[in-house]
Write a structure and sequence with these properties.
The chain is an alpha+beta fold and 134 residues long. It has a single domain, classed as Gcn5-related N-acetyltransferase (GNAT) (Aminopeptidase), CATH 3.40.630.30. It contains five helices and six strands; from the N terminus they run E-H-H-H-E-E-E-H-E-H-E. A six-stranded mixed β-sheet has the order 1-2-3-4-5-6. The longest helix is centred in the C-terminal third of the chain and has 13 residues. The protein is globular, with a radius of gyration of 14 Å.
């Protein structure tokens, strides 16, 4: 089941996961979760999670950067999935649908290192992940 994590108590649950956010983002886990929780009231940020029972098996954090005429994109700030559970393209579709609904022209991964996302090359190429035209 895909769920938007729009409450602070839902976002705190991400703290107990074994994702690679520290390696990819280069910040302490506590800082990452604190930032996610502090953004709960920020309507520009969304977190979608795939939940199996009570376990979060994948999640994606996206940020609305649509500010025409300067910018027309949504940034994927972070994306994690448990490879043992298989591919979950539904999360990416949720981001693309949201991006279209707010008038974005592209979804971009917020990184200068495409290789950070090479672990998802079974889903799509890192180059394609860097910018998805809508």
């Amino acid at each position: 089941m895909i769920k938007i994590l729009d409450k602070a108590e839902d976002r705190v649950k991400l703290h107990f996961m074994e994702d690679d956010s520290e390696d990819i983002l280069g910040i302490d886990r506590d800082q990452w979760i604190q930032w996610l929780v502090s953004q709960t009231e920020n309507g520009d940020m969304r977190i979608w999670a795939n939940i199996d029972g009570k376990e979060i098996t994948s999640y994606i954090v996206a940020y609305d950067c649509v500010d025409r005429p300067i910018a027309d994109h949504v940034y994927v700030v972070y994306f994690w999935m448990d490879h043992s559970r298989g591919i979950n393209e539904e999360l990416l579709e949720k981001v693309k649908d949201w991006a279209k609904s707010i008038g974005a022209g592209t979804v971009q991964v917020a990184t200068t290192e495409p290789d950070d996302f090479s672990r998802y090359d079974f889903l799509m190429s890192p180059e394609r992940l860097m910018e998805l035209k809508l």
